[in-house]
Amino acid sequence: KAGVTQTPRYLIKTRGQQVTLSCSPISGHRSVSWYQQTPGQGLQFLFEYFSETQRNKGNFPGRFSGRQFSNSRSEMNVSTLELGDSALYLCASSPGGGAANTEAFFGQGTRLTVV
Amino acid sequence: EDQVTQSPEALRLQEGESSSLNCSYTVSGLRGLFWYRQDPGKGPEFLFTLYSAGEEKEKERLKATLTKKESFLHITAPKPEDSATYLCAVQAQTGANNLFFGTGTRLTVIP
Q1: What is the nearest CA distance from A56 to chain B, expressed in angstroms?
Q2: Which of B31, B49, B96 sits opposite A56 (nearest CB)?
């Protein structure tokens, strides 16, 4: 069974640019969550998508957005990049929908560096 | 507000020296408590989910336990390959699937 796939693995962008990251969840999983991981703040929740709808959102500015497609694949976008957006962005896949099994499985992440 | 505190921040053990990592939590109705292992530059690897006080789960040299206020990850006779950062996270009974993470315990096992 294939795991969670995130692309690209590494990105270098310039301040002011925008970036789009992609996540393909485990087959059959309908919930995709995004997290930002930095050395100072640890893992912080960005947002969750379930059945193409944003179900929950963390405390991040509107420059961070996302979407989910009908095949459950998800993308997140960061506009007007700032140096502080440099981080490891992680995607987590889970069955969702109130399933008893709520384990979340993470991808390898996208390392974003803003210069 | 949900809160997760992990201790110690870092732990160095000799190979074979057993120990425990602590995760104290405050959450408005616990749906699940999760343990993950994370190696440098990689995504967290799922280890366990615990749902109710008194529950225990084991996997190889690891055993996770849960009370109403904290969880312990016991490591028995660790090996160098157990070196990693261990993350604890809670999920509240809000219907959403987001996890609230602690800052982790960085474990180093010395041969």
Answers
A1: 6
A2: B96
Scan for tokens 């699937």, then name that residue: B97
DSSP per residue, B63-110: EEEE-SSEEEEEE-S--GGG-EEEEEEEEETTS----EE---EEEEEE
Distance CA B38, CA A35 (A): 14
Of B44, B46, B98, the CB nearest to A33: B98
d(CA B21, CA B87): 10
Partner-chain contact A102 B100, CB within 8 Å: no
B89 to chain A: closest CA residue: A43
Q: CA-to-CA distance for B66 and B43, rounded, in angstroms?
A: 24
Cα–Cα distance, A26 to B58 (Å, whole number)? 24
Q: Tokens 């497609």 label which residue?
A: A69
Phi, psi of B71 (to 5 degrees): -130, 150
CA B66 to chain centre: 10
Alpha-carbon distance of B57 to A51, in angstroms, equals: 31
**pLDDT tens for each residue of chain B, 111 residues long:** 788 999 999 999 999 999 999 999 998 889 899 999 999 989 999 999 999 999 999 999 999 999 999 999 999 999 999 999 999 999 888 766 788 999 999 999 999
CA distance B14 to chain A (A): 26
